[in-house]
Amino acid sequence: xxxxxxxxxxxxxxxxxxxxxxxxxxxxxxxxxxxxxxxxxxxxxxxxxxxxxxxxxxxxxxxxxxxxxxxxxxxxxxxxxxxxxxxxxxxxxxxxxxxxxxxxxxxxxxxxxxxxxxxxxxxxxxxxxxxxxxxxxxxxxxxxxxxxxxxxxxxxxxxxxxxxxxxxxxxxxxxxxxxxxxxxxxxxxxxxxxxxxxxxxxxxxxxxxxxxxxxxxxxxxxxxxxxxxxxxxxxxxxxxxxxxxxxxxxxxxxxxxxxxxxxxxxxxxxxxxxxxxxxxxxxxxxxxxxxxxxxxxxxxxxxxxxx
Length: 307
Ligand code: UDP
Ligand code: MG
Fold this sequence. Notes:
Blueprint lengths: L2 E7 L6 H15 L3 E7 L6 H11 L3 E6 L5 H11 L4 E4 L11 H9 L4 E9 L4 H17 L8 E8 H7 L9 H8 L3 E8 L11 H15 L2 H31 L6 H34 L6 E4 L3
Parallel strand pairs: 1-2, 1-4, 2-3, 5-7
Antiparallel strand pairs: 3-8, 4-6, 5-6
Helix pairs in contact: 9-10
Bound molecules: uridine-5'-diphosphate and magnesium ion (MG).
Uridine-5'-diphosphate (UDP) binds next to strand 1 and helix 3.
């Protein structure tokens, strides 16, 4: 098998036919044996029927149908577990990732890279808020992690089967695949492209899902927030110590003390804030540890045509 294409699908009924046509145009040109793995992530529309009818006429169309919505990263993970291709492409179903780019990605890989990711030069048809939060997130993340996770890059990329083998051995429940791929290493490079607007439908990534994704990314690849909690604890204690000395001095030596409700209120609120924040940060890590300890399967498959 030359190429596997993994396509996570969540309510994409209007996009799949065109995606399939454009994938065929590109993939058939560059290789002879290939498979498309559609992972239906609990779509509420007719996506699964559309995929099924493609599978009936084309043996290259494989599908994994989840029992409910498990999330984009988990859908990709399920595809990776089944991908047989020497080269594996991860692509969105909404045509925001142009399928034609697979050809240059594949050529670049053949020139001697295990990972070629597609970096967004520009993004069309997305809200200012989404673009800005994404931009800030990637910059914050890169400052917090030791491994270099590429900036402004989604999951659209081509990776070698060697990389897929490694990803399949990473059992963590919180998936941040672009970080995991950076962690794996090998020779990595990128190509730039202009990201188009969605062909049809609406985004499946709500702000709540984006926030979870961001915190998963940070907690999976960085301990900086925990260190921040510790350091702010030291700093605040240091300031408090000086204040204690000053209070004792005023009380016992100069005896010029006044009832100071403002300073008391401020220090209580400030300390309370720092403490809650630190507990919250610890809680984020703790809840993720607890999820991993439970060790549940990552997803439940309703039906698949892959042996
Ligand atoms: N997706 C998914 N499960 C989800 C949300 C999204 O499988 O819970 C798929 C979706 O069908 C698409 C890809 O993940 O193929 C990217 O999602 P989307 O386009 O909604 O995100 P955006 O591009 O707006 O960040
Ligand atoms: Mg999209």
